[in-house]
Specification:
456 residues, alpha/beta, Aspartate Aminotransferase, domain 2, Aspartate Aminotransferase, domain 1, 3 domains, seven-stranded mixed beta sheet, 17 helices, globular, binds pyridoxal-5'-phosphate
């Protein structure tokens, strides 16, 4: 029998009380960052030889540190790509931590990996990829994009002619910054089609036509975006896929943000062609209501991912032998030891059902349309472009870039809202404008009105 540790029980109750308070509060503070020195002055030394004690440290967290974060689930946090994890997912995130599951190999993580795979089957079904396609959960979209492109490059290099070549990929300037970052890590060159509007097969063909003979030889993949982070624009996946097929190029779709919208009937057709992809990135921690962090990479052909990522090591052999009967997530992405980060998504899907997911995503899309109408009706505001997915770019007539910045800081300072400016490329010039991205289904029309009213 384990001795009952009273301190541990008390700490557990305190933590649970805090968690319940955090997830059930309807209007918590939006929070704002403070300087590291200020935080240090407020909390003092916390890492000491004897420890300061859990209760003391927890109080420091509650009083000084928790409020220096800007929770992404606030209904008026419409900056970057916010998030809104379900309570079910958050609760199971706690269970994921408490269960100490090593999620690399089936041998150790069968129960958790089984659940992840059930959630993954649903995600794959949304893409329309054929039988045999599957995926794994990653730490996020960056890791998913990197895993996909390394798979593509390794496959390309199976041809001895390319073994000593540095590969090249094509994407557009609408692609997420992580595509450039991952190209750097994978040491591949990148050519960007210079338009933020949706990438078409014709534009891709033009870009290929401008390559030198050597560049063309080294071109092995195209990264299209299924919902640009800045403006929610979905590339013309159908025509891009045709060019990829004709040119024998790996077709990757980065739908880290937009992938959640695959579940929404009202916009699903915009993704037509995604079923031709060789690999797809979707971030459940964006529009599938999972807590941080949870991304996913899906492959048409899992064997190619395994060839690229399966780690060999004598001390790993035991896992391979025993685990051969099951699915080993480590074999399909860059990470070995991994949290079963798809587990909270599984529990949330099982709890709510996929219809609720559909409704919640449709609500985000609807909020963007509502915001669009409110902006059109406002005498001082104009849409920069029609809302796309749940992104809305709009201008306050007469404002200079610094006006947007001041307004953002003022609203944030008051703890009222976080809405950040962005830039939109119009021809050769970049216009600074304001941007909404809706994820949280609890954001109300009134929230949007109040934010717009504050743009005086
Ligand atoms: C957010 C995003 C990423 C990066 O994902 P992380 O989870 O932040 O690593 C990649 N691509 C797109 C389109 C994104 O919106």
């Amino acid at each position: 029998m384990h001795k009952i540790d009273i301190e541990l029980v008390e700490m557990t109750l305190d933590v649970m009380k805090y968690v319940i308070g955090r997830v059930s509060a309807t209007e918590h503070k939006i929070g704002k960052p403070r300087k590291s020195e200020e935080l240090k002055a407020a909390v003092g030394e916390t890492i000491t030889e004897k420890g300061v004690g859990g209760e003391y440290a927890f109080n420091l967290w509650k009083e000084h540190l928790a409020t220096a974060n800007v929770p992404v689930d606030h209904p008026r946090n419409l900056a970057f790509v916010p998030a809104s994890p379900t309570k079910a997912a958050i609760m199971f995130d706690l269970i994921t931590s408490a269960s100490s599951i090593h999620g690399a190999y089936w041998m150790e993580g069968a129960g958790g990996i089984f659940c992840e795979n059930e959630a993954m089957k649903w995600m794959v079904s949304l893409t329309g990829l054929p039988e045999g396609a599957f995926g794994v959960f990653t730490s996020g979209g960056t890791a998913a994009n990197l895993s996909a492109i390394v798979t593509a490059r390794e496959h390309w290099r199976e041809n001895p002619e390319y073994q000593r070549e540095k590969g090249l990929i094509i994407t557009s300037i609408g692609a997420h910054s992580s595509v450039k970052a991952m190209a750097k890590v994978a040491d591949v060159d990148i050519v960007m089609v210079d338009s933020e509007e949706h990438l078409t097969g014709d534009a891709l063909k033009e870009a290929i036509a401008t390559l030198t003979a050597h560049q063309r030889k080294c071109l092995f993949a195209v990264v299209a975006t299924g919902g640009t982070t800045n403006a929610g624009i979905i590339d013309d996946l159908e025509s891009v896929s045709k060019v990829c097929e004709d040119e024998n190029l790996w077709f990757h779709v980065d739908a880290a943000y937009g992938g959640g919208a695959l579940v929404a009937d009202s916009v699903r057709h915009l993704f037509n062609g995604i079923e031709k992809a060789d690999s797809i990135t979707i971030d459940p921690h964006k529009w599938m209501f999972s807590p941080y962090d949870c991304g996913a990479v899906i492959y048409r052909n899992m064997e190619l991912a395994k060839n690229a990522h399966s780690q060999q090591g004598s001390y790993l052999e035991i896992f391979k032998d025993e685990g051969a009967h099951g699915f080993n997530p480590t074999d399909y992405q860059i990470q070995l030891t991994r949290r079963v980060r798809g587990l909270p998504l599984w529990f949330s899907l099982a709890t709510h059902g996929t219809d609720r997911y559909k409704e919640a995503v449709e609500r985000g899309l609807e909020l963007a349309q509502i915001a669009g109408r409110l902006i059109e009706a406002h005498p001082n505001l104009e849409l920069v472009r029609e809302p796309s997915l749940s992104c809305v770019l709009y201008r306050r007539i007469g404002w200079q870039p610094e006006d947007y910045t001041h307004w953002t800081y003022e609203n944030h300072e008051k703890g009222f809202a976080l809405v950040t400016p962005t830039k939109w490329k119009n021809g050769d010039t970049y216009e600074t404008c304001s941007r909404f991205c809706f994820i949280n289904p609890d954001t109300t029309e009134r929230d949007i009105e109040m934010i717009l009213e504050s743009m005086v």
